[in-house]
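Reopening this one. Same input as before:
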Amino acid sequence: MTEWSSEYPVNLVVDAPTTQSRLSILLRVILTLPHAIVLAVLGPVTSLLVMIAWFAILIAGRFPTAILGFTLGIAQWRARVNGYSRLLTSEFPPFSMKEKSNYPVRLAIREKATGRNRLSTFFRLFLLVPHILIFAFLTFIYYFVLLGGWLAGLWLGRIPEGIHSWLSGFSNWSERYNAYAYLLVDKYPPFSFR
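Same output, byte for byte:
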């Protein structure tokens, strides 16, 4: 099990690489499509709710509980789908916003609804710029690593540990960035895979 030990309130926990079906690896993009469609439909809804939460945090200093629960659920679901599409597991993700403690890719978030930082919330988009710039570069590398993992998986029936580790780290950084962007946490995400 790969656990990213950190003080940061968002961590992606990914089980160690195991053998995977070559057919599943070959068809992974197609198998992920149903989730991608549903999440794409829910994306604008989530963005609208986060915008409402942004105003609520600025005015009242709290993230509305119902919106927080929905946003957390979307983050959990998206993390599982990303883990599956990034070849971190061969287990098909459930269509669920609930936390699944037995799924091989788990997102742990220590969120808080009250006592939120209004200043960092107000400037959130500007604060994300350094991560956006680095992610532009890392995403370019990510596609090459993912392609290498896909080809190795087709050949070996498993994802090599080094590639699995890199993809896990990239996913961890990505989920921390997303949690910060969606106002789930106030603490600025580290520039780190761990």
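So the earlier flakiness isn't reproducible anymore. For the record, The chain has a mean pLDDT of 93.
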